[in-house]
Automatic annotation (TrEMBL), chains A, B:
An annotated Gene Ontology molecular function: dipeptidyl-peptidase activity
Keyword Methyltransferase tagged: no
Signal recorded as keyword: yes
Assembly notes: Homodimer.
Name under which the protein is recorded: Lysosomal Pro-X carboxypeptidase
Function: Cleaves C-terminal amino acids linked to proline in peptides such as angiotensin II, III and des-Arg9-bradykinin. This cleavage occurs at acidic pH, but enzymatic activity is retained with some substrates at neutral pH.
Family the UniProt entry places it in: Belongs to the peptidase S28 family.
């Protein structure tokens, strides 16, 4: 079962190998919303709002239904707030159920929770099942349109929920949703009084940060995961190359890795290596301190668990790769239910991935590279030209890598205010994140033991102190904004 | 000769009578750029930059040439600034030649002057002479696209003018250009350190201000212009109605007002009254203290001059209307060269007006109304429904009156900084402008004796003290921003 996706770009069939930034994130069935969680205190209503397909032009005047989830059982009318999740690239119910932080703080902040689905994802499809037909239909899949949807939705909520007219709104999001939260505050400060941007790599664009930082952090995670671990993975690529050179070797690989269909072509081998790379990247991203099923069901501290199999980088090829299989099997088959590993079951079947692939081919161009020295991956240069060619072949559009820094300010964002940028020290995306305070009101929170937006997840007994502190600080800042807002209302200038 | 236009909406043929907000502004030949002014200290180069037709979508990847004017003879490399005129609805050379303020302060601020033409105006036509063909071609005529053009242009200038990389930029504009300057600072604070928004009615939208304020201020100007003046104009409408009721009366009107072609139909009479209304509105807007030819060649304090003919509101119809002719003749024929007054020579021939008409039918919906009691005009309610119908008939689009407050914040703009809102007390647009300080860095400057952005005009011996003070303050604030920018650079946090 394939579902929601999170930062799951550019890996579409053959294309984007060198550009493959985010391998597909596979949402396991176990992480789908459990109806029992939606009862009582965690209950929400599913609602819809009519939105213009194009906020920025007038020739296209048609509308579509945007889905959002609403939970107002904790709302304290008159004193409370609205916590607004700026939905990212996937089914919004998945985000609602993986953002326990908002549910945990709802009562303390007397908050209405709103989870807004991002257009072109989940059920919010501007042209129904034709939404992904071609570049013309995809033309309205941009961050700007998504932010405008959010603005219209908030105005609608304030106008229609009795007593909510003057309720202050705080934007919250993680990953791409975190970028949207930050950008929302930057562009619509009249609509949200502040934003919590968790694990939001708003600087992973153009040449704002070195393209190698992402893979370097992944590698560092595995280096810390156990002696020999990252080295073993680094050596595995050459081992695969040597073994995949013969037909017998291909057979051996297919058998050893329990592949559902045997490796035959060069493309198969590329896809196979992609599968491995995907596993390492996502293990680093979801290296949470407890058993979780965010992307796949995984044990606590999965990188450490996996590294137990990868202690000896000097083994002969076949022994080394057998260990790699043991390790990767934890990622793809922790439950032990899969009878084989499916290479072709790629993410292209997921609307979420397709949407992100398009976004990565237009605005969300995040240069990535590896050199095999500072990281454990095969060397891959950032090649905008071939990236652009691939985008044009796949979607009929060309990326504009300069655009995000132009419209959202790049590193020059100090004129804005009331944004918390939180980052996990283990999270590869922290390399493109804001990790140093910019002003008194553009603040950062580092969670050294945190993976990808751990702070947005529900409280857990295994949480490291750093994430508990982060959540306390986040609530502290939100309360500050709310208090300031109240003061402004009581004593207008 | 018909040329540039300034706030010249919605009056297209029959349509928009009730909605006619801005009558066409007729740019007289005398106000066209005089080549001799462009020499020496006032010289500029005409340049072009390639811009994406659509910054906010990727299906349309074509480009067009945007024109801008560049004057760098006053630039002090290393310490100077860039003053950037955010071009509005007309030929940019006209604005360059009517914004003497920028030329006057260029040396003091060591500034490069840039005047950027607004897309779809002047020579900056995205689809050449097909730009106005239909709603599809007009789809990229929005304030957001114009701001994006400006952002791209500034980045281009900084990247290509040697030594300009770190030069701080200040946005300056008047009227709609003033709105663009303010909105530019709000949305792109990483690109401009501040903005001077002169006579920018950013609140003349939705129901942010009463729809009657505009005509009330026009009326007040004529009331102050001389005893009986506004009352005479108020009485003229009924007089016209009475006289236009007979064929003989129509002949008399046509003859008395020296019309080029005689009044015959009801539409003719409507157009005739429109011509009068247009004269009164623009006289109020350009009530400058010296002879000027901003829209039409006019004497100093033209409202006072005209009011000399309008002292007796109680005269019989024909005598009263003869006086009205004397008055309006000052506006349309101050030079005395016109042999007759042409009703059909409407502004629809001007690209500038057509563009503004489209903008007024999409984003720039500025509700206007008159009641004949608090103002001297015929009662006209604001009727969005018929406005929308007319827009659809004319352009195939429907207005979205909520959009400008949604995207630019309406009255809730206190999160922004470094914007000067200047307003003239005589200017009817001041009713929709920001006339009270919002924060320490969102400041207003009132010029009681000022008409429409008098402060942006060149120094003149007849300038009232209030406008001299305004210009001093404006330069003072700009220097503050520049100094702060320098401090930030020297001592980064």
């Amino acid at each position: 079962m394939w579902g929601g996706w999170l930062f799951c770009l550019a890996w579409v069939g053959d294309f984007g190998r060198a550009q493959s930034i985010f391998a597909p994130l596979r949402l396991h069935e176990a992480s789908r919303p459990d109806p029992s969680r939606l009862l009582g205190l965690h209950a929400y209503r599913t609602c819809c709002i009519t939105q213009k397909i194009d906020h920025f032009g007038f020739a296209e005047n048609r509308t579509f239904k945007q889905r959002y989830l609403l939970a107002d059982q904790h709302w304290k009318k008159g004193v409370g707030s609205i916590l607004f999740y700026t939905g990212n690239e996937g089914d919004i119910s998945w985000f609602a159920n993986n953002t326990g932080f908002m549910w945990n703080v709802a009562e303390e902040l007397g908050a209405i929770l709103v989870f807004a689905e991002h257009r072109y994802y989940g059920e919010s499809l501007p042209f129904g099942n034709k939404s992904y037909t071609d570049a013309k239909h995809l033309n309205y899949l941009t961050s700007e349109q998504a932010l405008a949807d959010f603005a219209i939705l908030i105005q609608h909520l304030k106008n229609t929920i009795p007593g909510a007219q003057n309720t202050p709104v705080i934007a919250i999001g993680g990953s791409y949703g975190g970028m949207l939260a930050a950008w929302f505050r930057m562009k619509y400060p009249h609509i949200v009084i502040g934003a919590l941007a968790a694990s939001a790599p708003i600087w992973q664009f153009d040449s704002l940060v070195p393209c190698g930082s992402f893979y370097k952090i992944v590698t560092e995670d595995f280096r810390k995961g156990g002696l020999g671990c990252s080295e073993t993975i680094r050596n595995s690529w050459a081992a695969i190359k040597r073994i995949a050179g013969t037909e017998k070797g291909l057979q051996w690989l297919s058998h050893t890795f329990h592949l559902c269909s045997p490796l035959k072509t060069t493309t198969d081998v590329i896809n196979f290596k992609e599968l491995l790379r995907e596993a390492w990247i996502y293990l680093a991203m979801v290296d949470y301190p407890y058993e979780a099923a965010f992307l796949q069901p995984l044990p606590a501290w999965p990188v450490k668990v996996i590294c137990k199999y990868l202690k000896n980088p000097k083994l002969p090829d076949r022994l080394l790769l057998q260990n790699i299989f043991q390790a990767v099997n934890i990622y793809y088959n922790y439950t032990g239910k899969a009878s084989c590993l499916n290479l072709t079951q790629t993410a292209t079947k997921s609307l979420g991935l397709r949407g992100w692939s398009y976004q990565a081919c237009t605005e969300m161009v995040m240069p990535m590279c590896s050199d095999g020295i500072n990281d454990m991956f095969e060397p891959q240069k950032w090649d905008l030209h071939s990236y652009s060619e691939d985008c044009f072949k796949t979607w009929g559009v060309r990326p504009r890598p300069y655009w995000i820094p132009t419209i959202y300010g790049g590193k020059n964002i100090s004129a804005h205010s009331n944004i918390i940028f939180s980052n996990g020290g283990l999270d590869p995306w922290s390399g493109g994140g804001v990790t140093k305070n910019i002003t008194d009101t553009l603040v950062t929170i580092m969670i050294p033991e945190g993976a990808h937006h751990l702070d947005l997840r529900a409280n857990n007994p295994s949480d490291p102190i750093s994430v508990l502190q982060a959540r306390l600080l986040e609530v502290h800042y939100m309360k500050l904004w709310l208090q300031k807002q109240k003061r402004v209302k009581k004593c207008p200038k």
